[in-house]
Amino acid sequence: MTDAKLIDGKAFAAGLRHRVAKGVAELVASGAPKPGLATILVGADPASQVYVRSKGKLAAELGMASLDHRLGAETTEAELLALIAKLNGDPAINGILVQLPLPKHIETSHVLLAVDPAKDVDGFHPVNVGRLGSIVAGAPLDFPVPCTPLGVLMLLQDALGSLSGRHAVIIGRSNLVGRPVAQLLLRADCTITITHSRTRDLPGLCRQADIVVVAIGKREFVRGDWIKPGAAVIDVGINRIVAEAGKTRLVGDADFAEILPVAGYLTPVPGGVGPMTVACLMFNTLQAARRAAGLPFASA
Ligand code: NAP
């Protein structure tokens, strides 16, 4: 049997970024203002600083206006909510991204609820969560959808074409990944099994799957003998491990070496789902700007 075909998320994300840049140029040429993405970082967490900087930089590269708001760690919830209210009312801003996690004295749910659902490019507002949770099969995704799950959907559709009738086993039920992935695949007419830390016989369930999506944060957890020959395995996990000579490297939640000879399709870590997240954020920002300009959502 031949090895699985690697799903090149890096290349797909580059193509998506290119399509977004083209969409931005077309929008601006039609007379609409540049799409505007506001990023908000509270505190000075080094990893968050890197994420926010790279998102702002990419937005600018794709022709968008990027406004970076850095607030001190002592910022109160009321001050943060006031900034969000100001951005909600600013027609130059189409997307508002509040970098998580927030300092402990700020209630994350209050902040997510404060963002205008139309500008919620992360797809975390309860209105958008509810829209995704109640979407019927095949209905258009004409509202913001969480970025990593949207990236998973795009990669699967690109690799497999129609997902209709396929059995997808999703490992992990977080609001960030597992649940929205399940909703998106259900909309695409998959049969869904959602699994979690209390699931019995996870290997047995996985062996029935045409598609396995794993997002649990446990290194190389899914083993080769859990996978049905020819199945597609999407590894969302990002785990940093100490490798040779004290150096660190990233591995996924799936055992790449064991699964490669069994699966039909497999995402590597890094270079699989990871690059899709920020590309989908840009896609969501363009979509929000199109809606603000009275244009329909564009397909990816
Ligand atoms: P999370 O909120 O910690 O959720 C983990 C989920 O995994 C929970 O539902 C948990 O079940 C389940 N789980 C834990 N141990 C399990 C086990 N032994 N068997 C079955 N299920 C188990 O994590 P997350 O935010 O979804 O992130 C998951 C992984 O994806 C992490 O490695 C994260 O870094 C990565 N990630 C990557 C991207 C990207 O851009 N590529 C984006 C987001 C996240 P319970 O609900 O029962 O506790």
Structure description:
This protein is an alpha/beta fold and 300 residues long. It has two domains: 31-116, Rossmann fold; 146-276, 3-Layer(aba) Sandwich (Rossmann fold). Helices cover 39% and strands 16% of the residues. Helix 1 (9-29) runs parallel beside helix 10, helix 6 (147-160) packs across helix 7 and helix 6 crosses helix 10 (274-292). The two termini are 33 Å apart. The chain binds NADP nicotinamide-adenine-dinucleotide phosphate. NADP nicotinamide-adenine-dinucleotide phosphate is lined by residues 148, 171-174, 176-178, 195-199, 202, 215-218, 236-239, 273-274, 277.
Poorly predicted tracts of residues: none
| CATH level 4 superfamily of the largest domain | NAD(P)-binding Rossmann-like Domain
From the N-terminal CA to the C-terminal CA, the straight-line distance is 33 Å
Number of domain units: 2
Shape: globular
**What spatial order of strands do you see in the largest sheet?**
1-11-8-7-5-6
The H-and-E topology, N to C, reads as EHEHEHEHHHEHEHEEEEHEH
CATH classification, class level of the largest domain: Alpha Beta
Ligands bound, unique: NADP nicotinamide-adenine-dinucleotide phosphate
